[in-house]
Design a protein that fits this description.
Helix content: 25-40%
Order of helices and strands: HHHEHEHEEEEHEEHHEHEEEH
Shape: globular
Structural class: alpha/beta
Number of domains: 1
Low-confidence stretches: none
CATH class: Alpha Beta
Number of strands: 12
Strand content: 15-25%
CATH architecture: 3-Layer(aba) Sandwich
Oligomer: single chain
């Protein structure tokens, strides 16, 4: 989707709150799950990145549970721990965890410290945009700016927040196979608090933030991680191809991962 098209779509959604809510609600993702659809195509890569039928997957930034449902679509026996600090999501996530099985909810954010922090979200024209919540207020406000919204009204923008618990991933006793990170601009903080876990378990990391020589890549590059893109059913080295997310994969596994999809054909 081109930049101008995204701007048009974003502008329309901001003026039609019921449509925005419908597109970001758990109900929509439950329908996707029943139809065998993932909410982002990169989740189709997960079965190609694990060696056991019940892998440990960490869903960092759980929101309404869309990633839980996408993971369970492609890996029905996955053991998922979802980290979501916002109290407004807790009841729905707990209900979803009970329904799906093999899911645990941790009501905290992951970062590079243990303690408390403030989580922020934008409000535009009186409507809270909870899907854009972040520990970084600058990241939150960067979503609603003239360059991204037609008819931008600066006097209609505000920011709200709540106090939440934050933990380092290294403070948990987990041995993950995959880390999915969607935390609206604070991915590097998550990784800094997870370096011991990553060095020990060598999981695959998936995030929007992962491009070559980014801060996140710079943290894991000394541990022997390379950037790989999953595009049209195959893995490609590097981050030049367009994609919603990219992967950091242990360097020793990259040749096998790339050749595996090339040899078996494209995955849909």
């Amino acid at each position: 989707m081109g930049t101008e098209v995204r701007k048009v779509v974003r502008s329309v959604l901001l003026r039609l709150p019921p449509v925005y809510e419908a597109l970001t609600s758990q109900r929509r993702y439950l329908v996707y799950h029943r139809l065998g659809i993932v909410h982002e195509p990169d989740f189709r890569a997960f079965p190609l990145l694990v060696s056991r039928p019940d892998p440990v997957v960490l869903d960092i930034g759980g929101n309404e549970g869309q990633s839980i449902l996408s993971i369970k679509t492609v890996l029905p026996n996955a053991r998922i721990t979802t980290f979501e600090p916002a109290g407004r999501h807790e009841e729905k996530l707990q209900d979803l965890a009970t329904r799906m099985g093999g899911v645990r909810i941790e009501t905290c954010a992951l970062s590079d410290t243990d303690g408390e922090a403030e989580i922020f979200w934008p409000v535009y024209r009186g409507r809270a945009m909870h899907a854009l919540a972040s520990l970084d207020p600058h990241e939150v406000m960067s979503w609603i700016i003239p360059e991204r919204v037609y008819g931008y009204e600066p006097d209609r923008v505000s920011i709200e927040s709540e106090r939440i618990d934050v933990r380092r991933l290294d403070s948990f006793d987990l041995e993950p196979d995959i880390l999915k990170i969607d935390v609206q601009g604070t991915e590097a903080r998550v990784l800094r608090g997870a370096l011991a876990t990553i060095e020990h378990s060598r999981p695959v990391v998936m995030s929007e933030d992962l491009i070559e020589d980014s801060e996140s890549h710079g943290l894991l590059k000394p541990l022997g991680y390379d950037v790989v893109t999953f595009r049209k059913g195959t893995f490609e080295r590097g981050s030049t191809a367009p994609a919603t997310n990219r992967f950091l994969i242990p360097s020793e596994r990259v040749p096998d991962v790339v050749s595996r999809t090339e040899s078996r054909g494209r995955v849909h």
